[in-house]
Design a protein that fits this description.
The chain is α+β, with helices and mostly antiparallel strands and about 250 residues long. It folds into 2 domains: about 160 residues, no CATH class; about 35 residues. Helices cover about 15% and strands about 30% of the residues.
Amino acid sequence: MVLADACQGGDVPQAVFTASDLPALAEGIDLKTSGELTVHALAPANAGWKLTQDGETVTLTSSQAAGDSSPQWQKLGNVKTRSGHPLKVTVSAMEAPHRDESKEKASSRSKPKQTLPAVPALLVLSPEGKAEPDRVLDLVRGRTDTLAPPDDPRRSHVRTNQQGADFQPPASAEAWRDRAHHLREQMLVALGLWPMPPKSPLNPQVYGKLERDGYTIEHVVLETLPGFTLSGNLYRPASKTGRVPGVLCPHGH
C-alpha cells in the first residue's frame, strides 16, 4: 500500500500513497511511528484542500475554483500518529462551484445529482519540517529537468526469473477474502469506479422478438448511466414461464 517508506537519494523517510491506496487508507493503516507528520498532496492548483483530524481519523476535503488546473504540491497540515493505532484517511465530496441553472437547457427527464469526491494523485506523509515531496515525484514519474535516469534502486538491483514473485498464499480463508476485497477495490479505483457513481433508473427496453426453435431472442437496452446505454440479446426458452436460471455473457470487446 505504501509506495516507498523512504525517499531514495534522501535521508528523510516519507510514506507515499497513490489514489489506488485510498480504499486501504479509509480502513486504516499503521504507519508504525508516533509523532507529527506533515501531509502534502499533489492535486490540481484550482482545487484547495483542507485537512481535519478527529482521533485516528483524518478527513480531506476540497473546493474547486476557476483557474489553473495543472497539478502542484499543496501542504494540507499536520497529523498526529501513534504506533499500533491505524490512521484512517478519508476523502469527502468536493464542494461544487455555483452553476446558473437558468442558463441550462431543460431536460425531458430528471437526472440524479452525482457528488463524487475529488481524489489527489499523491499523498506524502513526512516528519514535520522535513518534507521532500519533489524527490517522491521524481521516483513516481521520473525527472523532467534532465535526461539522466531516475535514482531508482531497481537500476542497480536486477531481479531474475529464478527469484519468483515472492507471492505467499494467504494462510486462511479469511486472509483470502481480505486479499480479494483489497484487489477488487484497487480495480475499482483503476477503472474510475471508486467510489461507485449513484444508482439511477435502468429504464429497460425490450423489443424485436425473434422466434426460434424452442427459444426466442429479444433486443434489450439498459440505461446504465443517464444518457449512456448498454445493449444486448436476451435468449429465453419459449416453453418456460416464471423464474428460470440465467447466464450473463459479457463480451471482451
